[in-house]
Structure formats: structure tokens, C-alpha cells
Write a structure and sequence with these properties.
binds magnesium ion, Rossmann fold, 7 strands, five-stranded parallel beta sheet, alpha/beta, binds thiamine diphosphate, single chain
């Protein structure tokens, strides 16, 4: 049962902003890989390249009051929700100015002020956290929604299926966004899951549909309809966004990069690139002037360069402070625990 109304697209300026944001997501990741190779980032990075339309399209339907939860492949979600690339790079480089003061790294970036309740390395674990936020909104009578992002690989995690059930039973304002990129690490989806993912979600009573995750307009339209429904008290939804990650599952310095996925499959998805698609549509429809694209690309490159410079020039934490900021003594909105 897909949401009944299809929202209109916003004005040209807003859609040009989507192009800029998708470009930012991609350049952020490409530069992160360079930083891995140069030894500036220690450990692994999961690139979001290829899936930009999902984060940007879904977050375009949200306000700063709405909450997202993210995954191990979280940079794109955080940037799409308004995260600061400079503080993100600083976190990836283990600097004091990073989102987690350099203690968390790629998979733990959070910004509660922006409604980003954290990337999460545990597959499926962002879903119940999203439910908690949605429950809070409902109890407070606020019109906000929660959007847990997760991959196709999470669809067999018990915690995710329990979350579907609870969201329906409690009629929570949640939009579950499944990023179906066809693989969990190297396992193709057909080897671990049968049937259509959105149909499985529909069986729980969720309003569920599949959308082209390589089309930012389609993702926006579906997300905006689901968000409007949830804000109006219409309950939770599920969007299966079909896309592809262009890169390997993750990258680390010195680890060979052989991609065993069929070459024709990779070429086919790259031929449907979301950034090129939107750029083509904006040109065909006369929505941006000649030269606008090059100007935006330069702006994005300058922003990325500035962000990396900020991170590189930031201090590393003092080794003696290694245990600082590691344990919560209370939670936002609750009184101090009193056991400091
Ligand atoms: C509970 C749990 N099980 C296993 C892992 C190891 N793991 C990390 S990413 C991943 C695959 C996730 O695939 P998917 O959800 O499709 O996301 P994608 O990487 O494709 O974006 C697995 C199995 C984990 N992090 N957490
Ligand atoms: Mg996957």
C-alpha cells in the first residue's frame, strides 16, 4: 500500500541544491579514500558512492527537528542531514575537532542538534533507536518523524523485524529507508533473501513501496509522501530504494581492491548514475543556466579542500585523555546521574 498522494517537486533552486549535495557526498568519499591511501585515515572507510540519491532525496523531505539513524556506510546520511564535512574529516583523521573528539571515527559520527542520532556499525541497530525517537515525538505531541537508514543485509536481522512490528503496533512516525544495493559485503541478495523486500515489509502492515534509488526526484517524492503521512498521524512506512555501491564494501590501506561483481552489472548501474541523471534533467528542463554545473563543482571542491585542511591542521587528542568522553554520565533531557 504506497502512500496515496505524490508531492510536487520543489523549485529549481532547491533541486540544484540536491545536485550540489550529491556532488558533495561523492567528493567527500573519493577524498576519504585518498586519505586512507595516504595513511591519514587509520582503519576502514565504507564509501557511499553510487547511493547519493537515497540520502539526499530522503533527507530533502525532513527538517532539522526530524531524526535519522545511520549505518556503517554513514557519511552520506550525515552530510545529507546537514553534517559539517570539516568536523567529519577531523573525526576520520582522529582529531580533537572531530564530531566525537577523534575517539569515534567513521562509524560513530553523531550530531544531536541536527537530529543525527549516529552512524552505527551494528547492522540493523539504528532501527530501534529511530523507534525511540519516534516514540518521544509521539508522547510529546510533536509532528516530527524518525528515519532509520539500513541496508538489504539488515533485512534478516531480528531487531529490524521486531522494529517493523513495534512501529506498526504503536503507530509511530517512522519511515524505514532500506538501501537495497544488492549485496551484503560480497554476498548477493539472492543468496540470503527470497521475495521482494518491500512486500515483506508490507506483510508487517507497513505502507511499503520500492523506488528507483538512482533517481533523487523519485526518492524525494516517495519520502515526502511517507513523511506527510507520518506527520498527520498515519503511521509508519517502508521505502525500498534500489541502488548500487560503485566501490568495494570498504577500503583500507594496503588491502587489495578486487571487485568480483560482474563487470556488465557494474557498468549497467554506473550508466544510471544519479548525479548525471539529475544534471541531465536540470539541463533538459532549462532549470539551470549554462556554466552553473561547473561553478557548483568548483564550489564543492573548494569546500572539500577547506574541510580537509581544517582536519589536517587540528590537534590530535592528548594520549593521557584517552578515557575522556568515553562513558555517558547522563542523557540529553535527563538529570545528571550523580555517579561522576
Ligand atoms: C549485527 C552485525 N552482523 C554482522 C556485521 C558485519 N557486517 C558489517 S557490514 C555487513 C553487511 C551489511 O550489508 P547491508 O546491510 O546490505 O549494507 P551495505 O554494506 O550493502 O550498505 C556485515 C554483515 C555487523 N557489523 N553487525
Ligand atoms: Mg547491501
Amino acid at each position: 500500500m504506497p502512500p496515496s498522494t505524490t508531492p510536487d517537486l520543489p523549485d529549481a533552486e532547491t533541486q540544484i541544491g540536491w545536485y550540489q549535495r550529491m556532488r558533495l557526498l561523492r567528493r567527500f568519499e573519493q577524498n576519504a579514500v585518498e586519505l586512507v591511501d595516504e595513511g591519514d585515515i587509520i582503519g576502514i572507510v565504507h564509501e557511499y558512492v553510487g547511493e547519493e540519491a537515497i540520502a539526499v532525496g530522503a533527507c530533502a523531505a525532513l527538517t532539522e527537528h526530524d531524526v535519522i539513524t545511520s549505518t556503517h556506510r554513514g557519511h552520506g546520511h550525515i552530510l545529507a542531514k546537514g553534517g559539517d564535512p570539516a568536523r567529519m574529516y577531523a573525526e576520520l583523521l582522529g582529531r580533537e575537532t572531530g564530531y566525537n573528539k577523534g575517539r569515534g571515527g567513521s562509524m560513530h559520527i553523531a550530531d544531536l542538534d541536527l537530529g543525527i542520532f549516529g552512524a552505527n556499525g551494528i547492522v540493523g541497530a539504528g532501527a530501534p533507536m529511530g523507534l525511540g525517537a519516534a516514540h518521544m515525538f509521539k508522547l510529546r505531541g510533536e509532528p516530527h518523524v524518525a528515519v532509520p537508514f539500513f541496508g538489504d543485509g539488515a533485512m534478516n536481522q531480528g531487531v529490524l523485524l521486531e522494529s517493523f512490528n513495534l512501529a506498526v503496533i504503536m503507530e509511530l512516525p517512522v519511515i524505514f529507508v532500506c538501501e537495497n544495493n544488492g549485496y551484503a559485503i560480497t554476498t548477493p541478495i539472492g543468496e540470503m533473501t527470497r521475495g521482494e523486500l518491500f512486500e515483506r515489509a508490507a506483510a508487517f502492515g507497513l505502507a511499503a513501496e520500492a523506488v528507483d534509488g538512482m533517481d533523487v526526484r523519485a526518492v524525494y517524492r516517495a519520502a515526502a509522501a511517507a513523511v506527510a503521512r507520518a506527520r498527520a498521524g498515519g503511521g509508519p512506512s517502508f521505502l525500498e530504494c534500489r541502488a548500487y555501491r560503485y566501490s568495494l564494501h570498504n577500503v583500507a590501506k594496503g588491502v587489495p581492491r578486487e571487485d568480483d561483481r560482474p563487470a556488465a552489472e557494474q557498468a549497467d548501474w554506473r550508466g544510471r548514475d544519479a548525479i548525471e541523471r539529475l544534471a541531465g534533467e536540470l539541463t533538459e528542463e532549462g532549470l539551470w543556466p549554462d556554466g552553473a554545473r561547473a561553478e557548483i563543482d568548483d564550489e564543492v571542491d573548494a569546500e572539500i579542500e577547506g574541510a580537509i585542511g581544517f582536519a589536517r591542521n587540528s590537534r590530535r587528542p592528548d594520549p593521557d585523555s584517552v578515557l575522556d568522553h568515553m562513558y555517558a554520565v547522563t542523557y540529553p533531557g535527563l538529570p545528571a546521574a550523580g555517579w561522576e
